[in-house]
Write a structure and sequence with these properties.
homodimer, alpha/beta, Molybdenum Cofactor Biosythetic Enzyme, Chain A, Alpha-Beta Plaits, Maf protein, five-stranded mixed beta sheet, 16 helices, 17 strands
Amino acid sequence: MSNIAASIITIGDELLIGQTIDTNSAWIAKQLNQQGIDLRRRVAVGDEWQPIINALDDELKEAQLVIITGGLGPTADDITKPLLLHYFGGAMRTDARVLEHVKGIFAKRNRPMLERNLKQAEVPDTCTVLFNRLGTAPGMWFEREGKIVISLPGVPFEMVAIMEDEVLPRLLDRFESDAIIHHTIVTVGEGESFIAEKIQSIEESLPSHIKLAYLPGAGMVKLRLTGKGSDEAALNELIVGYKNKIAEMLKDIVIAMSDMPLERVLFEQFMLKGKSLGLAESCTGGYIAHHLTQVPGSSAYFKGGIVCYQTSIKENVLGVSTDTIMMSGEVSEATAIELAKGAMKVLDVDCALSVTGLLGPATDEDKEPVGTVWMATASMDKVVSRKFVFHYDRIRNKEMAVSMGMLMIYKYISDVN
Amino acid sequence: MSNIAASIITIGDELLIGQTIDTNSAWIAKQLNQQGIDLRRRVAVGDEWQPIINALDDELKEAQLVIITGGLGPTADDITKPLLLHYFGGAMRTDARVLEHVKGIFAKRNRPMLERNLKQAEVPDTCTVLFNRLGTAPGMWFEREGKIVISLPGVPFEMVAIMEDEVLPRLLDRFESDAIIHHTIVTVGEGESFIAEKIQSIEESLPSHIKLAYLPGAGMVKLRLTGKGSDEAALNELIVGYKNKIAEMLKDIVIAMSDMPLERVLFEQFMLKGKSLGLAESCTGGYIAHHLTQVPGSSAYFKGGIVCYQTSIKENVLGVSTDTIMMSGEVSEATAIELAKGAMKVLDVDCALSVTGLLGPATDEDKEPVGTVWMATASMDKVVSRKFVFHYDRIRNKEMAVSMGMLMIYKYISDVN
């Protein structure tokens, strides 16, 4: 059959007033995409009856599959279940397995069981129950006129568990569809216009069923090739061919041939080259360490770091001299270099990166302007230092410093033979 | 006039295949909300002509204001500008101020200027240009039949700058509207059902124009009261009255009377009580330090931390005895306590939190099960240790450990007189 079109409806006032960032949609989108299901639209609406009904009506006009998240909690602002009962008809029934499960959760947590918790085990008799092993609100699967509506809780890890346990296997069974194949190249150091110019001839020669997208990030641009077709192997071969041609033209700036975050690139490079790494983070406050340790197994190369937020830690733990701080300032090349050398010694690593800067919003008359960040990498045979000036707000300046810090580490490790 | 209804349309295939998480919508939603503008829907569509046209048609039926983000880059996958030219008519013209600005950016970065970069200064002559001081793609403001369509770049910091510089002041000028007021109470340690039961009598007595929402998070529940009305002062007084009543009924579990993250609560408590804090993070890899340092001025109480990812850092930097690690294991109460005491000493702080655990996915036959995390707080007069077992994946286990670690710190500081 031809590809099916899907929509996601997320429910919750918190999405419309900006109290919550919607991470569920992106996760669901990725899963559907991997099964070759075409997500056409994502819609967010508030906790109100009529807008939800309208969204359902609208999306069902063009989509064969609608996934709804949110509004399944035990409190009065949660209206998805009665709404779906109304929409699909039928009567409420208590599901024995869910009831048992809800009781078990409360017994395990040693909490009193309330009437409203028991209600979590009620479902319309017009749906198939999607068991929620991590929570009390079950998912629901409705069908009408060949179209499917799935309701899932908004709590991210519960949604994920139900998708993996119950929804994705059923969708795989149900639909055969065209393959959708993505390939991504990760580049650093050049802007998207520059890249577009370099690979213009290839971009213009792409057949119409293969799309090229530019995804710019901090200091990096990802290039994504996407194709769709019934012959998965042939399609893959075709896309890989274009990918290799593009990578060949951009070879100086390509750091990965698949969609992976920088921390994963670093992990692979350090493992390959058998080096160890340490950090001395002042203004980035542990955020680089956090990124590096997102990769399972990263302890094999990343020994640890010092978050030297106050001056005393820079001096007493990392051995930066009081003179250097007095003469050059905390945000200076000299301090960055002493921090990196200190971290290399204290943490006993092959290479250490240091970061010291002023992210804002406050500034100090005597010091560097807000956004100034000094970084250094130190290893046995080389010290490299670099100054950055970021022009954004505190949060964004921190993110930029993290990306640039990881690129400094990349520069070190890619130079190691 | 009555409140205006708004919609957001975000454009980009990366949103529909789950490659990017949409943070723009939440930010825009918050700003509109603060101006009393009612966001009705958020819609995400791909980089394709007809679906974007359809979304515009649909949203303009009920909204007086539509904000579009994305699709304004210099590469071939960016189609928003030609599409809006088609939709609103007119012809392309080169904007002199934008052109000057684009040239300036390239000169400053010392990059060659390409034909496609010059094109960034072209805009339909049917729009008002919204100047983008941080990037090359200007925003655009169109009007037709009393309705407004605003197009902004998808790069978050550029979008934010244009909203703040150009869009929000114009919207404020244009619309007077009903006030929307939110008040939030932050609670820890009880579930939403328990809370709902406790405050049922108040919830049932709320007038229809005031809504109560439960926003559960890791170990916490936020309660949000929202009201809308023309008399802002009276409305605020009414909501604050309900808020105080609710807080009174929940007083043992309330940690903040406004919507603030835990790191902000900690900052205020430590400042109030004049104590200093340090960290020894193993499995959380610096992520707690990152959270604490998101608050401007946090260096006044947070001195720093040690990310002791490998055993050698635990022993050599923090002084955990090799015996303890051999006998009890790295993930154990004894190691957690020695880490906290070591951090207190090395960092010279009033209180230190340690975190050591196994987040997964890999496990080790001899060790604790995946998800086991030991934490301890150490201060001059007290050591408190606690074991947690999280049942999620690596990323989620880390987030849970961060929340629980910050709650351990909260427990320490709230007990200080």
